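Recap slide: ABC transmembrane type-1 domain-containing protein, sequence and predicted structure.
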Amino acid sequence: RAFHMENEFLNTFIDKINANTRANFLFGCTGRWFGIRLDLMSCCLTFVTAILSVVLRHQMETSSVALALSYCINLTALFQWAKELMNFYQGNIVPPINWPTEGRFQFENYKLKYRPELEPVLKGINLEVIPRNKIGVIGRTGAGKSSIFQALFRLTEPSTTEGKILIDGIDIHTISLNDLRSILSIIPHFTC
């Protein structure tokens, strides 16, 4: 209501919802794509087993053929179960309770863009901060000092980054934002 910015905030909100919906749709499509590939692989295995059992029918017992075919058919369900487990655990990776233990930060060939069509602001940073050391980040305006901290707190879209940021060996892009930001703190440029 302040400054009559309702429409601006509504448009921003709708853009964010659309981006989230696109990401969720893509995640669902990739899961289905992977599931179809697993089904195709198990069907091919079942087909090859059936062909071999016909070709080698005089060398194999009927019970062995039946057992091999039943295992191939059960393999489809096992593949689907493994895919579901992988999806479940990838979305719920939680760092260890006492993480971080040392406080080692590593940037490995890290690149950051504010938007996909723009030039990188951080261009292949390789940096290691050894535990219990104090460092200063110094540079002229636009050198990327604030961008390093934006990357560390994951304030940018993952699609605009390359490389890894590790804290005690754990990639910050594999854990939830809540877990990451609960262990970090920052003193801002400007105070209110």
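Residues 2-91 form one domain.
The chain has two domains: 2-91, 105-183.
(End of recap.)
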